[in-house]
Amino acid sequence: MSLLRRNWLWLLALVVLLAFPFLFYDWAKGRHSGFALTLMSEIGVMAIFALSFNMLMGQAGLLSFGHAVLFGLGAYCAAHVVNLVKAGTIWLPTELVPLAGGLGGLFFGFVLGWLATKQRATAFAMITMGLGELVSAAALMFMGFFGGEGGITIDRVMDTSLLGVRYTSPWQVYCLVLAWAFIAAALMRLQTQTPLGRMANAARDNFERAQFVGYDPRRIRWIQFTLAGFFAGIGGGLYVLIYEIVTFDTVSAAKSANALLAVYIGGTGAFFGPILGTIVVVLLQSGVSLLSNAWLLYVGVLFIVMVMYAPIGLVGLIGLHAPIWRAGRLRELLLPYLRALPPALMVLLGFVLLVELTSFTTIGAAQGKHFAIAGRTIDTTSPLPWGIALVALGLGALWLRREARAFRLRWDALMEDAKRQAGAS
Amino acid sequence: MRARSGISILLGLVLAIAGMGGASAQQTIKVAYTDPLSGPFAQVGDANLKQMQYIIDFINAKGGALGKKFELVPFDNKSQPSDALIALKSATDQNMPFIMQCSGSNIAAALIDGVNKHNDRNPDNRIIYLNCGAVAPELTNEQCSFWHFRFDLHAAMKAEVMVRALPKETTKVYLINQDYLFGQSVQRELRTYLAKLRPDVQIVGDELIPLGKIKDFSPYITKIKASGAQALMTGNWGPDMNLLIKAGIDAGADLRYYTFYAHLAGGPTAIGAGGDGRVLSVMSFGENVAPELGNKEAEEFTKGFRDKHKFDFSAAGYRTIFEYLQAAVNKAGAVDATKIAFALEGMTIRDFLGFETTMRKDDHQLISEYFVGSFKKGVKYDAENTGLGWATAATVLAKDVDQPNTCKMKRPR
Amino acid sequence: MEVFVVSLLNGLVYGMLLFMLASGLTLILSMMGVLNFAHASAYMLGAYFAYTISLYVGFWPALIVAPVLCGLVGAAIEMWGLRRVHRHGHIAELLFTFGVALIIEKAVQMTWGLLPVPYRVPELLDFPLFRIYGTQFPAYRAFMLLISALMFGAIWLGLTRTRVGLVIQAALTHPDMASALGHNVPRIFTLVFAAGTALAGLAGVIGGNYQVTEPAMAFTMGPIVFVVVVFGGLGSLTGCFIASILMGLIQTFAVVFDVSLADLLAKFGITVTASTPFAEILTVTLPRIGALLPFLMMVLILVFRPRGLMGTRDT
Residue A364 above 70 pLDDT? Predict the structure, then answer.
């Protein structure tokens, strides 16, 4: 019972995640939305990937530019295993395919880690970058293992399931992804509490001291890197099951960058940060990109805003509220937040409108597209929308600054009280 | 503070409102189109999108099909197969009967496989994959699929066209290709067809280069010059082609450049006036083809685009795709992927330039005429305001590229 | 011999272009510790600025004005962005520059379109300077060599003969010490960042028409610059210079030698056939992987000598 009480958050998350796809359920046709399910499965996979990246960046302070190499190589291993199973050479239940990817990631993490973990800090980052470039170039050149440009395709319907599921529908795969995501996340969470995880922290925070305690920091880095490879490989194995194909772009620098961005946006401070960050990044990339060609610009702006104003990440921002929440006065922040919302929306609207207008005049218009809001086509050459955008942006910014100042005062006062309260009790 | 952090979520919302308003209430035949529309390779999808939109408007003005209009729905795949598959899911969710994709055989392979599996598993919601430019020969041979229709000649056919266009005086050629599936197959096919059609030609050099990694091609030019080659044959695209030709021109090498992609958006600008009479490209359509043939209607059609967009209409050949779709949907009598696919099989159409084309039944490969253009001064329509344009150097008829195939097509019952 | 001489010249030209790009990054990375992902974007901006300026007033003014504009952009980025981010650590700075790179790419696409722009070599320099074994050597390449040599000289003099230069040099090797001695390190940071960006811009001005000016040029040029800087070693301009030339020459000469590991093994009496394990890797010839050699070399040098070729401290 205490186990249940301690882990209620995990259970709640599981229930919510299982129920969530039904919001997109097409009742008329009686089927799930494949798009929503695939997107959510993608989030699951990328969350595992980001968490494993955080084992390096957050826990051990190692910035890797080539983490996708482990993810991708794990995926390739899993794909080959699936094809062997399908051919009848070996037997493996579908549910354990991600494990095959994980072992592949473990192996390559061990081998590449031997090279990379000889150094730390910038040198480590550059080694991983070099390895990433080499592997992604090799993935295109060598047909045998990587299948060239076309990659390796698989058929996930192997009929070797332990549960008797055929995995024909995205829903079944989503459930499998969810299960593995929870297992992997739980294992990674446990790992942070092992002596190894603690020592990785120590080596991150004070390299020399960790050495004096009697641990070999290099070995710690190596083991940590190998384990991160294992979890990234699990992600890769799941990727193969979702898309039934693995191509060279799974090892690319862009994929590595995604993990870095997700982890940073979410925040390295708390275990769940990378998951939150992943949700934001995937929604931006696969959701917003369907609506706007300028999505990369929004990504760029988001990062700059985050880095400048909230380097602690989303989780960090939420964490800031903890003292006030403990003092039971979170409700008093509601009004200031609500007051800040309209100007923030205004700034956002003005900015988005401005970017979209520019984008449409220079690129979009020639594509024969129409810039429409609520079904009304907007003439991007007339001054009216530009005026609206500029006014919204300018006035919104001024207003937001005012509200922000008021918010700041309120916040400081609340914090002060909360601290005093905590001190008194 | 939270207002700022919530930006991402709000952003999505705002954009959703901005973007979704465009959907029209009228019933249309939706064609999902997926190619890179953002990032470093955005020009590929962008150029195609502009031209296809024009063609679709034209086809719709001619009545569409079954009284319905075609509608192009773009999806950005960022050159990633996974994103193309997400686009496929989105298209099938909305019951779109077609998904179209033009660039990248990695994405094409993923889409063929994805479409096959989707159609197998969801017989009530099938989709046809229209391939408008992924040219790996495998896609209509070993990997051929009933649901995949390719509306561009594949690499082996283009290689044959290129070899056929090689003038008699040329006896020494040099091959340079990118080191991945496509480049490797171009290399293989060029060798095959040179041996078959031009046994007098000697291959004095054969090179593979890493994809997109080389910034200076001068060393290659030095090597090519040393080999005494008269012509350079390459399947390179993007910077790998532009920089190669530029380096050759700069070094004053006396070479002809036989390319697959020099005519695509950006190529003429990058090559510039130095390429006068030296650069040739294998193309499905050139803007000077119609005036050269004296085909007024086709010329009007291409000129209309140029007047409207200040942009070359190099992909006017896509009109054939939509004419096939129009005819097939009408013939099928319903917007039903299976019926349309059966209608498309073996269909023949006289394209707008007046040549016979066939959608071959056994491998779903379009067999059409093809051109080799030469980049030179003094043509009626120049390319990208360079003053130079593509004059037709050779026309290869459909029957000459009708290569055999190894496809074992599985048809649904 | 013929191939050797021509390749040497070509290798030098490419190496010097790399140096122009990498020298700025060496300054920035060594002094500020910023892995500046927007550096190649400055290269692209330089080319585009030069294109637009040369449309109106010609190439020669552009040669001065475009780098200055890039420098101003750099200074603005440093003063209003990077400086605020600095206290959040190196990863924050890196992500900041990453965001800047994304914004610049999109801004370039929105301003100049998605296609390459016709940025051409000025007519004054558009002639073959001399012929060597039948291959023309364009005058523009000689001009590139000249500009980069001048630039190298200018940086050298600036760093060794001026007061600011000496402070920068001190800050390069002992950043903490320099600030402890009371020098205005933030201002020097701005200066160095602006100068580094301007150098990249200059590289863009003369590299943009030598290559192709298009929105993807930053993306394709990015990684190799890091390689040069890290290989040369932090805090050493000489190392950066040697590394650039070396990378230029290696990539040029790799193309010339058609050998593979299989050929090497054949010397020892081992023949590689299609059935040999790893045959695919063993039969890869040098030209096929020439462009990858820099990455391989970077990994190896970092593993065994983390300070790079001539670095003054570990990377």
Answer: no
Q: What's the Cα-to-Cα distance from C49 to each of B239, C119, C206, rounded to whole Å? A: 20, 10, 11
Residue A34 sits in a domain whose CATH number is: 1.10.3470
Burial of C207 per CB tally in 10 Å (0-12, 13-18, 19+): buried
Q: Are the CB atoms for A229 and A49 separated by under 8 Å?
A: no
Q: Which residues of A touch C111 (CB under 8 A)?
A: 362
Could A151 and B106 be called an inter-chain contact, meaning their C-beta atoms sit closer than 8 Å? yes
Position A178, amino acid: L
Chain centroid offset of residue B106 CA: 14
Rounded-to-integer distance, Cα C230 and Cα B19, Å: 45
User: Does A247 sit within 8 Å of B81, measured CB to CB?
Assistant: yes
Minimal Cβ distance to B218: which of C10, C120, C289: C10
SS3 B365: strand
Residue C138 has φ and ψ, to the nearest 5°, of: -65, 145
Cβ atoms < 10 Å from Cβ of B195: 12
Q: Within the 165-224 window of chain C, which residues sit less than 8 Å (CB to CB) from chain A?
A: 223
Dig out the tokens for C133 from the structure: 């074994």
The pLDDT value recorded for residue C48 is: 96
- Chain B adjacent subunits, 3+ CB pairs under 8 A: A, C
Q: For residue A210, give its domain range.
A: 18-318
Mean pLDDT, residues B113-120: 92
- pLDDT of residue B4 exceeding 50, the answer is no
Find chain C residues with C-beta within 8 A of B43's C-beta. 114-115, 214-215
Residues 152-171 of chain C with CB under 8 A from chain A are: none
In chain B the domains, ranked by start, together with CATH numbers, are: 25-153+295-368 (3.40.50.2300), 156-283+370-400 (3.40.50.2300)
Please indicate, yes or no, whether residues A335 and A302 belong to a single structural domain of this protein: no
Q: Residue B73 in 3-state DSSP?
A: strand
Q: Taking Cα atoms as reference points, which of C16, C221, C208 lies closest to residue C120? A: C208
CB–CB contact A170 B89 (8 Å)? yes
Least confident interval from A283-292, A293-302, A367-376, C158-167: A367-376
d(CA C140, CA C126): 7
B269 and C11 within 8 Å at the Cβ level: the answer is no
CB-CB under 8 Å, A129 with C98: no
Contact yes or no for A362 and C113 at CB 8 A: yes
Cβ of residue B195 closer than 8 Å to a chain C Cβ: no
Whole-number pLDDT of residue B50: 84
Total domain count for chain A? 2
B15 with A288: Cβ contact below 8 A: yes
Mean residue pLDDT of chain A comes to 85
Task: Kindly give, in sequence order, each residue whose CB lies less than 8 Å from that of residue A275, ignoring residues fewer than 6 positions away.
Answer: A47, A50, A51, A185, A266
A34 occurs within a structural domain: yes
List, for residues A41-90, the tens digit of each pLDDT value: 999 999 999 999 999 988 888 889 999 999 999 999 999 999 999 888 88
Where is the domain boundary, A318, A340, A375?
A318
What pLDDT is recorded for position B245?
92
Q: Is A348 on the interface with B (CB under 8 A)?
A: yes
Answer whether residue A3 is part of any domain.
Answer: no
Which residue is listed with tokens 């409102």?
Answer: B17
How far apart are the two ends of chain C, measured CA to CA in Å? 39
A198 contact partners, CB below 8 Å, separation of at least 6:
none
pTM over 0.95: no
Last residue of some domain: A268, A298, A318? A318
Residue A368 covered by a domain: yes
Q: Would you call B292 an interface residue with chain C, using a CB distance cutoff of 8 Å?
A: no
| CA B164 – CA B162 distance, rounded (Å) | 5
Mean pLDDT value of segment B363-372: 93
**Subunit contact B117:A309, Cβ cutoff 8 A:** no
A350 plus A224 within the same structural domain: no
